[in-house]
């Protein structure tokens, strides 16, 4: 199969010439995902986990089936280790509030890196504010790599939580989470992995990388918006208090107390997002039919073409590694004399979609000493023709802005 063949599965690409290079923000949805959600509403829509009648039982079964598909997809031992959330952000907050506040104290440390997305920074700032713990920052070298020396010098016996993005949404670099996790475990810390940018692009197995918690969003791997995942080791989740309270998450309630439902329901208060969980299952089935080998191969090929083309433009600066294979399809750049917002707006005139701004990673922008950047992020359904047209259009941006080259 070729990228062009897979594109046929995506209704949004039909009948227009848009080049969608903002896949790190959200991916597009294949028909199979759209159909799975519609099918849920058309055939089994009822409030899951409540009713004793056919439709509700069916809705519950489909929801729980989706959970077990997610568990297998990331190598979780049991389905109850999968909590459905809205997105990575909610998963991170759940860990911070329910695990962090309970297990971190005044003289403790929480270790993150400067390349984290805000959703893997702000929850830990909150925990530090409330407990008096210290936030410790790992910094990458010029190629965007967190070296062994760096993490070994910053993760000490004081670390209670080490929370690391698997793939940076700005530099595209894959962090050595497995090695960091092994070292952090030796020091007695719990390891949280932000998989928002890795799970859609590579096979992620929680046991292989040694994650105690893993968070990711469905919408970046072709599932609907509004469904996310928190994986947590059973013994950790069991010892945690609920994040939100209300319906569905209780065992028994009296006037002045309550006991909690079994895992994972303890963490899923209120009516759940069953249709989108079913959509996530369809997305996982779809991604597995494409295969991570193809995804990697296509992303490498396109990223090489893109970075080779950019390297010929003296006014473009690309951030992160010089090796296209180390970008996970993400190419963040600036253009001399042109603000990233102008790059994005001018590209849009030619139906090219790229992101511009701080990418919810302001500490990284400060570290790179740049206010904002433009970012082209690719996925397996993008094509060589698109990259070639993108490069042509990119040259035109400078002309539009009044430069002669
Ligand atoms: N972490 C990373 C690395 C991300 O790229 C993103 C999304 N840009 C998030 C977390 C947050 O994801 P969401 O907005 O779906 O919660």
TrEMBL record:
Gene Ontology MF terms: cysteine desulfurase activity; pyridoxal phosphate binding
E.C. designation(s): 2.8.1.7
Residues making up the signal peptide according to the UniProt record: none
Protein known as: cysteine desulfurase
Domain Aminotransferase class V span(s) in chain numbering: 19-390
Organism: Butyrivibrio fibrisolvens
InterPro entries: Aminotrans_V_dom, Cys_dSase_SufS, Cysteine_dSase, PyrdxlP-dep_Trfase, PyrdxlP-dep_Trfase_major, PyrdxlP-dep_Trfase_small
SUPFAM superfamilies registered for this protein in UniProt: PLP-dependent transferases
GO annotation terms (biological process): cysteine metabolic process
Keyword Nucleus: no
Obligatory cofactor(s): pyridoxal 5'-phosphate
Database matches in Pfam families: Aminotran_5
UniProtKB keywords: Pyridoxal phosphate, Transferase
Protein family membership: Belongs to the class-V pyridoxal-phosphate-dependent aminotransferase family. Csd subfamily.
Catalytic activity, as annotated: (sulfur carrier)-H + L-cysteine = (sulfur carrier)-SH + L-alanine
């Amino acid at each position: 199969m070729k990228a062009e063949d897979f594109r046929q599965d995506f209704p949004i690409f039909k009948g227009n010439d848009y080049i969608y290079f903002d896949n790190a923000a959200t991916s597009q949805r294949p028909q199979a995902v759209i159909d799975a959600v519609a099918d849920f509403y058309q055939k089994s829509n009822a409030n899951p986990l409540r009713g004793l009648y056919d439709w509700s039982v069916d809705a519950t079964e489909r929801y729980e089936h989706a959970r077990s598909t997610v568990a297998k997809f990331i190598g979780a031992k049991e389905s109850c280790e999968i909590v459905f959330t809205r997105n990575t952000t909610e998963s991170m907050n759940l860990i911070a509030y329910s695990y962090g506040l309970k297990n971190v104290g005044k003289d403790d440390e929480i270790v993150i890196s400067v390349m984290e997305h805000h959703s893997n920074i702000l929850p830990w700032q909150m925990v530090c504010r409330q407990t008096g713990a210290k936030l410790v920052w790992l910094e990458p070298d010029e190629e965007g790599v967190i070296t062994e020396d760096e993490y070994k010098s910053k993760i000490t016996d004081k670390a209670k939580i080490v929370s690391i993005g698997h793939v940076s949404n700005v530099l595209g670099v894959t962090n050595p989470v497995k090695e960091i996790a092994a070292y952090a475990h030796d020091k007695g810390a719990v390891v949280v992995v932000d998989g928002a940018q890795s799970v859609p692009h590579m096979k992620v197995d929680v046991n292989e990388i040694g994650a105690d918690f893993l968070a990711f969003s469905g919408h970046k791997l072709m599932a609907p918006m509004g469904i996310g995942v928190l994986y947590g080791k059973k013994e950790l989740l069991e010892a945690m208090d609920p994040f939100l309270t209300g319906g569905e998450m209780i065992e028994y309630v009296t006037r002045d107390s309550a006991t909690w439902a079994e895992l994972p329901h303890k963490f899923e208060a209120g009516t759940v997002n069953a249709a989108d969980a079913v959509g996530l299952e369809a997305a996982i089935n779809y991604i597995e039919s494409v295969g991570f080998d193809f995804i990697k191969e296509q992303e490498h090929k396109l990223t090489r073409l893109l970075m080779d083309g950019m390297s010929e433009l003296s006014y473009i600066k690309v951030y992160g590694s010089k090796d296209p294979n180390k970008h996970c399809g993400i190419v963040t750049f600036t253009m001399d004399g042109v603000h990233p917002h102008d790059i994005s707006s001018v590209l849009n005139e030619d139906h090219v979609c790229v992101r511009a701004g701080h990418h919810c990673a302001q500490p990284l922008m400060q570290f790179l000493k740049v206010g904002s950047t433009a970012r082209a992020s690719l996925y397996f359904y993008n094509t060589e023709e698109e990259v070639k047209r993108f490069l042509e259009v990119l040259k035109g941006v400078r002309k539009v802005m009044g430069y002669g080259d």
